[in-house]
Amino acid sequence: MFLQRSAVAAARRAAAAPALRRGIAVTAVRRNDKVPAPNYKTFNEVKTAQDLLGPGAKPGTVPSDLEQSTGLERLEILGKMEGVDIFDMRPLDASRLGTMADPILVRSAGDEQYAGCTGFPADSHNVIWLGMTRKRPIERCPECGSVYKMNYVGPDDDAHGHHDHHHGFEEPKTFADYVKPEYY
Ligand SMILES: [Zn+2]
């Protein structure tokens, strides 16, 4: 099976339907004015990491995930409550073997991305995890030869200066770093 994660695609889907959601919420409130607004930021209200803190449990009660989760876990829960899968766990294209000319594209919003290959047809070999980075986006499965390419869909780099580092991540040196660049 092939897995990938992309928050950006989910965010785009979320952006496409806020009007509908607002309509449902307003209807619910009008029907019963006693329904209090939630004491936490909802998915569409989340703007910064600070908005991803739960309200905590009432004294003497055991907290639910909704009450106590924070960070990405909280964003995932808030998204699911509104029908948005923020990690986009849909499988990759498994209808063919990737080639250098036509690789299987793996979307990524981050600097690194891992894809699990099980060959073609799917599950014809044990899962092999392939790591791709923005610097070296193409990877080939050593078992079946399928070629994958990371398609970066995250935010653009800072406009002020192009540094060679990506937010502190540095790939470990390998023999590839010491051969001619055209072999890299
Ligand atoms: Zn493979």
Automatic annotation (TrEMBL):
Membrane topology listed for this record: Peripheral membrane protein
Gene Ontology molecular function terms on file: metal ion binding
Keywords: Membrane, Metal-binding, Mitochondrion, Mitochondrion inner membrane, Transit peptide, Zinc
Pfam families: COX5B
GO biological process, one term: mitochondrial electron transport, cytochrome c to oxygen
Metal-binding among keywords: yes
Sites where the protein binds Zn(2+): C117, H125, C141, C144
An annotated GO cellular component: mitochondrial inner membrane
Pathway(s) of this molecule: Energy metabolism; oxidative phosphorylation
Keyword Flavoprotein: no
Intracellular or extracellular location(s): Mitochondrion inner membrane
Family: Belongs to the cytochrome c oxidase subunit 5B family.
Name under which the protein is recorded: Cytochrome c oxidase subunit 4, mitochondrial
